[in-house]
Design brief:
Blueprint lengths: L14 H17 L19 H6 L2 E2 L5 E2 L14 H12 L19
Antiparallel strand pairs: 1-2
């Protein structure tokens, strides 16, 4: 997908899109027959490509250089919401992967 670097699973705070991206990616395991096959998913970051200018070109500084306006990295986990933090802590306390989120099986209600 043509999404900004680091946003492979979709937009922050858009769980419906993130879920659909994951479902589409998992469905690829059932359909891809040849190693190296690439499937283009239909999802778009926005209606136009204006976001690419900001993502690909640093803002110019007054001295003619380019300002690095990328978001800094953190040594601690970052969560989209308080619910995500709580779910990760529950998984960690249970001895499970703190970042693992599993979709409910077909025909079952979601826990969230």
């Amino acid at each position: 997908m043509d999404f900004p670097l680091g946003r492979t699973a979709g937009k922050p705070n858009d769980p419906a899109l993130q879920r659909q991206v994951m479902i589409d990616a998992l469905n690829a395991f059932e359909t891809i027959q040849q190693p190296g096959t690439i499937i283009t998913l239909p999802h778009r970051w926005s209606d136009d490509d204006a976001w690419k200018d900001h993502a690909m070109r640093p803002k110019p500084r007054a001295d003619g250089g380019a300002a690095d306006d990328r978001v800094g990295r953190f040594d601690t986990p970052q969560y989209q919401s308080e619910d995500d933090r709580v779910a990760a802590e529950i998984n960690l306390a249970a001895g499970e992967c703190p970042g693992c989120v599993f979709l409910p099986e077909a025909g079952t209600a979601s826990a969230t």
